[in-house]
Amino acid sequence: MSAPKRLRTRKPGTMTTAWSDPADGGAGGLPGCGEAPADVRGVAEPAGRAHPAADPSGPGDAPVASGGGVMSSSSSSQDESDEEALSLEPMLIRLAELQRRLLYWSVDHPADCAVEQQRSTLPAQRKKLKEAVDKLSTRIKLLLPCTLHPLFDRRNAVLYLSVPRRAAKLCELLRPNPGRHSLQDKEVDCELVRRAVKELHQNRFDARIFGTIVGFPGMGKTYLMRLLLMSQAASAPASSAAVEIESDEVMSWWMSVPLFVISFNGITSATSIDLLLAALGYELPGVVRLLFSEMMRQDGGSDFATFRAAMLEALQAGKLSPSTLLMLVNYVRRTRCREQLDRHPTFVGILLADELVQLSRAPPPSPTRLQRSQRGRRSGGQPLPLPSSSSDLRRCNASSSSDVDGSPATWTPREATQGANEAMAGHAVTTPVMHGARVAELTRSALCSTAKNHSLLLCVSSFSEGFIIREQTASGSVPVRIGFLQLVEATRVAAAVSQVLCERKKGFQVTSKSGTTSVLTTETVGMCLGVLAGGHPRAAEVLITSIEASRHGEPFLSNFLSRLEPGKLSLASSSVDTLCEYPAVVAVGLLGYEVDPEVPFCDSIPWDHVYAQGALTRGVLDRTHRRATRSASRFGAPASPIYSTRLNVAFLLEVLKRKPSRARMESDVGEQSPAATVVDQDLYAALHHVRAALETGDAAVAWERFVFSGLTAVSHARRICSQKLGSLVRDGQEQPPLHQTTLLDLFPASSPYVGDAPWLEAAEVDASRAFVGVRLFRNYTELLAMDDEELLKYVWQAEQSNFPAVDGVIFFKCTGCTVAAGPRRGKLVAVMLQLKRKEKINLAKDVIKSAVSAAAAFGVIAGTSSWSRRTAFIVLSHRELPRRRDVDLVHAVAAPVIVVDQLGLIATFGPGLHALIQSSAIAFGTQVVDVTSASSLEG
């Protein structure tokens, strides 16, 4: 780069003349909104390194030529002389004003508004303006490294493009994984945009806020940012729909606010170079990305890795300073933003920062690069900070996942600088300048401050609530959730699966042990795979991809699981390990309880740790698909978003593959249990029995085994949750304490599928006690001869397959009842179970007659004891019951009878095991086959 010309020092009091145009009136824009923004600093920031000098004046502060026209030739020589005296920062401010006028020229000078006399002079004025821009740009380039010169190319740089072309180019920085093409829903997308825009508009006058989008990996954070960016482009589908939904005022505001984009993923992913940049200024990893995004060429040819390395080299060599880069940020903002600050006193643009927390995962620099960087110096001559002790080295080399999932970093910059001189004296350098987690924290705060100093609103995406909350603590900023990411409902996945099956001419063939084969309908396959995805968008995409990639006769599940590896889903590598190590996480996922991310669950680790890793799927439940339970009906539906927790079924299967079966649980039904104390790890053993049940070839036998094993497993989950969780919330509804729950809470149904027995809802039982296993019984006499503790310990299964009216019995202890005809406190309640897989249930024959028969048989053995008022008959149906019911159990039978269909089984077994019920048709032994036509899939 050639040496810059020596600049003349301007004499005190010298005035400069700004360019203007006739239609501008000194403002240069639409009426009332074309004036260049004044320089608003926002929240004051302490003096420190890498902060630019205060702007001497905004563009509007310079005098305007008389009459508002282009300056006359008599003043040209004076202006040129003044420009010769300007330093870099005033020249950038001047150039930004000129570039902005060129950028919005067609808006400021509409052909139908200009008078004929002015219209004839516009071409000459525009030509003169371009000449001034070119001349000033040339002078500025002499003061900057050539790597930054593309920023001033108004023909190719993104900074100067129209909104649609600019949005399309910036979208290259926001590449969602998955792209969600198969799962796109226009209404959902428009709702996301509408809600985000509304939140931003409502908080536009609050200088303390920063926008946040929080969700686990693959939930759609980047996708939402991309939607926001494209919503401002006229061709974007989300734009027109959003206009219809929102008021003209809100959308007019939104369409006028410039968006700036940076990303720490994709083509601008975080690397060790960012750690070295942060050592020179914590805002630099973000600032370098912002400048790169604005200087990208519309015709391609931009390479971020090369640009970032050149910036680091120039900064370390002292050829460039952080303050100069911040001047360029100010230039970018002034060029693009044109709203008056008296109308929007806090910010005039929005900065979208995607995946900032990826800095936590940046690998340490290699020893060679780190040693080379030590030869560089900061602009102030200070050495780069290095760890000072062996403890610092261990902390520095530790995995950054602790901060990614919400745990705070403890290594401070002061600790890092203590040993810098020793390191510079020749000691070997083997560690990064600073731990990636700490860099992410400091960069986030620096970006918040930089954005406020440049009148920009920062909006960040993160899969960690803790990462957001710590910024609120550090700077007093107020996080505002602008995106409530929804779970992907099974129906959306089912529709996408059906489309793929038809397009690819594929089907799912089931081969049972009896030798018969069948091809499942697309509807069945779609719903099975929909619940298998567990609400996870990325898992759903991998699922659909695995269908497309499956070869004829290839088992589907193994193919799917091979593509569902945590590493391939960009989840933390320890997500499945967390499920293996912490039974409480599995228990919460099985029962679908929602836990506040800030609540600690083990060793002071917050639940944010679990959600951020993706071990559980947490998102907003769609209002139209919220599950209704009897307990939920007691409370009004809240207006705020309802969060729901799900356990990815595929991850659960992976956990069971890694966890060996424990000898504590009996390996076969009927074996004697060691009757040892129940521990949390027994949950995994119970789940192994659940998996074994699903692998049974005969569907009817599999259903029976699943129910008994599932009741055992879910009892362990309830016991753990009762001990670990302070409150129980599912799908936005607070649940009763597990030791004070009713049978209708455990086996939910509504009239007319509930018999005339008030105590079913009034009597409370203790459901927090775990069953240690499944045991066979021959008859009621043998069963009732046992003591209470023995009865409470097991799920009891009838030894004979043709046992009259009953397949099994479970017992609970009553903890209270307000109905005289019900059980008394401390007494046992017997629940007699009958299992149905029939598609159609005849209430009169299959339920009422069986209930009466079972009650009579049990009463003969019980005699005149109180069992008659503490025995319930419950039917568990694998099918969904018809909506039109010809028989009302309330009037048909005067007995405590409950019929639970597939929807109610969600509360009985929890959404985790219920997902296994729904996906059991394709989960095991199912292979993908090629079919000759789409119509044959329906056979």
From TrEMBL:
Top-level taxon: Eukaryota
Protein name: Uncharacterized protein
